[in-house]
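Hi there,

I know you've been waiting on this one. I reran it after we fixed the sequence typo, so this is the corrected version. Both the input and the resulting structure follow.
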Amino acid sequence: MATTDFIAAIELGSSKIAGIAGKRDTDGSISVLAYAQDDASQFVHKGVIFNIDKAATALSDIIIKLETQLRNSSIAKVYVGVGGKSLRTIENQVSRTVTGEEKISEKLVDSISDENLAYPYDDFDILDVEPQEYKIDNRLVADPVGVAGKDITAHFLNIVARKMVKKNLELSFQQGHVKVAELVLAPKALGNAVLTETDRRLGCALVDLGAETTTVSVYKNNILRYLTVIPLGSENITQDIASLQMSDEDARQFKILYGDALATEEEIDKSEVYELENGQTISKDLLGDIVSARIEEILVNVWNQIQISGYDDKLTAGVFFTGGGCNLKNLEEAFKKIVRDDRLKIKTIKFIPDVVRGYGSELKRNGTLCTLFGLLLAGKDNCSLEKPEPKIEVVQPKENVQQDMFADDKDLKDQEAVILAKKAAEEERQRQLRDTEEEKKRRAEEAERKKKERERKKNSFFNKVKRGFDSMTGELFGSEDNSDKMTD
């Protein structure tokens, strides 16, 4: 039976494109139903799509793989993560003087937010906005609606990226015929997934060590305060090792199996080597120097960005590392060496416990899928293609309709035809009889009518003669009377 209720998400990282689908359980957790990934190095660089055609093809392939695992259910839309090297935060302020009102209205706050969104940034899009605080007269408040005051200044943290980031992303999905449910800011989705509300409230920094980029997010009072992307990642370590005349895959294997963020201070026999199954070797001393030098560069930049945020001394919950690069041996110790503050807590998060489960061994617990899990958890709407219910036509039975049980009996049909013929002949005979009687009656009535007409004419003639005779008699006798009267 096809799965008809699930959330789907896609992440386009520098090393891979990955898709996931899962069903939200009653406790808010996600049970993963499908997962698929493919190499993204041919169309994504430092988190930004540069080849739209290849990206569109890869997106279509991921959707097909997910739908197959979903028992051939169709995916109507997906939640998509937005990230990349140009992602950063920019502070902005909008001030207003309250006139004609005694308190701050919701309409005024909305108007201030709209003015912030309209702020022009050259070649940058505002992808998201994190309201910081509102200063009303001389007071700082988190929620200004209903507060009395005359002057208000809103502090915003605008999260921006170059226009090509969003544009290329949208074009790739359009060309791949994949509908986007929502563009989700990937670092925020990751932070909401791996950090607790307490961590964000107390103050912490989240460091996502990716393949080609490292994202630093700083939280305090449960609000995102700073975000930036460093254009360096664990793949830079791979390329440094590969410069020793070996393939990228062999270099990656050396990094994963033997890489150490701390260069050992012990004397190492330079003849000692690490060896892969295919026979490729590398000096232990040389590998240690390469890995530790590059990761130190990345971690120094991370700490520098945390200091620039202004919250380096307010991270009560500490610094959290995640992403594929967090698997490097002695990473936490290497960062402590740079920070030189024993009070700062440093932790590594490789999975999201009790929130995402299922899908067997494919559900990796090495930090590489944490952002994808975050995007899945950020989804709210059902992403399944809802097929219309089949229309059932209800046929009302005709009243007093009897079924012919002998419709296929030839003999009965012949008998019925004979009866019908006789009935028709009888009806014709009766009609003719009725016609004969009606004709006789008509003729009798016509004869009677003519008889009466003759009698009428006869009486009329005699009456006329009588009137003539009476007239003549009157004239004769009337003349004698008149003569006598004249003589007298």
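Quick highlight: Residues 479-488 have pLDDT under 50 and may be disordered.

Best,
R. S.
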